[in-house]
């Protein structure tokens, strides 16, 4: 698979202290093959590879301290860029109702996504949606949307299957105004293949409802075909976004990589299951990392780099190595970790995070950190530097001072001891490797 191949290549290059031009060429060749195999559009691959080569052979990488890591970062950034840079939001109309039209081939997930999206904007944006049953051709399509409406306790506008979808859409928007529904989702009919009649009808719906968003719903499993579909819908309707469904399945990922590049239309949301809450905003960066098979480790690295001052990190590393790491240092590290965001999030981004969470003495809980800080602040300078002197009476004083209990003080002392032991191991095994934060 794409991920496997890329990972193989990455493994080879990751730890390299020096990357030669030949290394870069070898790697880009692998990346190129992997992408083509994953059904990514040929021209897209060619452009991408050229950009990667240019950057990777350039100063940016060869001059950096960790060229292997840097090459991977370049690939990741370029993949992210390819998928559309930053994530996008729904374009809400200043004059409600906002009209959102969902189009796509049969079975792509339009009707399901209509429900998911309405659920999403109601929760995230506090909106009051109206669902519109605009598929009058497929048997039971109206009923399907009505059922979703019931599950969501959300109104569904339908006029049966005798009226034209154009009339239905027009009436629905009028009804939304009347009932003060501030966003309208129009579910439309699909075909097995793109055809002119379908396009004409969709164009008419567009012209009578003036949608703020026209989302193409694409099944991620359809690979390269998804790109062709997107291209032709875009030509006719001028899409404003793409929603990639069924990413929970065993997809090849090629669609995600090419859709934006080919149509100029960003992927805005992804469907991750059949349930009504299985919809997420699309994060190109996360997707790129996932494709590279590294969890969000690069995001983590960047965050750590931005937060932890380089010199301080070096100093800390020295302290860890010489085992002169004190509770004061610990406190400072906690502060730095905190500014990076909730620990849960940080941990979730790391490969092998699950294993870590299971480690009994390294449980991370944001609330606990406040407690830990209080305990450390209740220690005297000497106690912080030499925790071994903390006897029973000192423990009692610290517990009272921090508003915790002796057990909690004991637990922290034990954790600190374990942590030092772990640092010693890390430092011993990873000679020369950089360890920038205590969880890395
Ligand atoms: P439509 O013809 O485009 O309206 O497609 P539907 O909304 O009826 O969906 C077709 C099938 O795909 C249904 O069985 C849905 O439950 C399923 N489906 C839609 N989105 C997703 C998704 O993100 N993940 C999974 N696993 N199934 C989905
Ligand atoms: Mg449908």
Automatic annotation (TrEMBL):
Pfam families on file: SRP54, SRP54_N, SRP_SPB
GO biological process: SRP-dependent cotranslational protein targeting to membrane
Catalytic activity: GTP + H2O = GDP + phosphate + H(+)
UniProt entry tagged with the keyword Ion transport: no
InterPro entries (alphabetical): AAA+_ATPase, P-loop_NTPase, Signal_recog_part_SRP54_M_sf, Signal_recog_particl_SRP54_hlx, Signal_recog_particle_SRP54_M, SRP, SRP54, SRP54_GTPase_dom
Its EC number(s): 3.6.5.4
Domain of life: Bacteria
GO CC, any one term: signal recognition particle
Record's subunit section: Part of the signal recognition particle protein translocation system, which is composed of SRP and FtsY.
Similarity comment text for this entry: Belongs to the GTP-binding SRP family. SRP54 subfamily.
Name listed for the protein in its UniProt record: Signal recognition particle protein
